[in-house]
Structures are given as C-alpha cells and as structure tokens.
Records
---
Amino acid sequence: MSVIRNREIVLLFLSFFLSAAALYAQEPPVDTVAVPLKHGYFSYEGNVYPSVGYTYRVEYDTSAFSCCSKIKYDYPAKVAAGLCGADSGTAVYEFKPRKTGVFEIVEIFGFRGKETNRIRHRVVVKE
C-alpha cells in the first residue's frame, strides 16, 4: 500500500515540476526590437567570468541572423599574459538580419554549469 502511495506522490511532484518548467519556458518576451533588413544591426551583452563560472550565451535562429561574438576583457593585458582569474569581461553578440520576419532571441545566463536566468526578446525585421 505504501509503495503505491509513494509512486503517487512522486508522480504528483513530477507533474508539478514539469508544469512549472513549461510555464517558465513560455514567459513572454521582455521587449520588441524593430530592425531594418538592409544596414540594420543590433547587439546584446552580458558579463562573463569563466574561471569563476559565470557564463553568458545567446540562442537565435541562424537562418534569420548572422552573428559575430567576442569578449571585451576587463584586463586584456593580464589575459594576454596568461594570469589566472583575469578573464572577467563582457561577451558581446552582434547580429545582422538576413531575412524579414518576427524572431526571438534568448539571452541565457549561467553559473557553474547551471542556467540562472533566461531573457527572451522579440525582433521584428522589416524591409
């Protein structure tokens, strides 16, 4: 009897967790950015500190945008010298639209391999 009850509790907890995860994944975009197709570009930036565990990345439709990313280090001379712990900086993702439409770009922040925050943006690319 208790084995059946434990399974029910586990299934109830699992369904609650999956429902909460689905709601979290469906949060609405925080803003809408309008960009012209020709000569239009925009960027997103986030703090990184890889040696400590802080990460930042961006997910986007690769058929809709071309992207160039780089890190602007806070202490570039120390990074060039190979000093440990000097790798704090800002990750910059620059986007150029390839086609018109409505798209989403998601900023993903992490700490030590775990996602800590997700910010969705709606991008409208017009002629």
Note: Residues 18-23 have pLDDT under 50 and may be disordered.
---
Amino acid sequence: MVRSKTRARVEHAFAEPKDRVGLFIRTIGRGRAEAIITLANMVYNMKRWYWLERMAAA
C-alpha cells in the first residue's frame, strides 16, 4: 500500500511531459536530447508552480 501511494504521487511528473507536452525524443546526440528533456521539465515545473500559486491565493 505504501509503495502504491508513493508511485501515484510520482508518476504524474513523468506522465505530464510524455502525454500533454508531447515529449518524444528523436534527436542526434545526447546533448540535444538532454536539452529537450530539460525544457519539458521546465514547462512542467512552471505549470505546477502556477497551479500551486493559484491554490494558495484561493
């Protein structure tokens, strides 16, 4: 039960870039792939921050 609760809290952070942002890495080189992943993570974090700020204001 503890394992499934932890998994449920973490998996949405990986599903967001893959499903909603459309993250599909097809590049040449590790540097470019890391850049794409970094940008997708930044988008996710900014969306999450905006949502948390809205919830705190309410």
Note: The two ends are 32 Å apart (CA to CA).
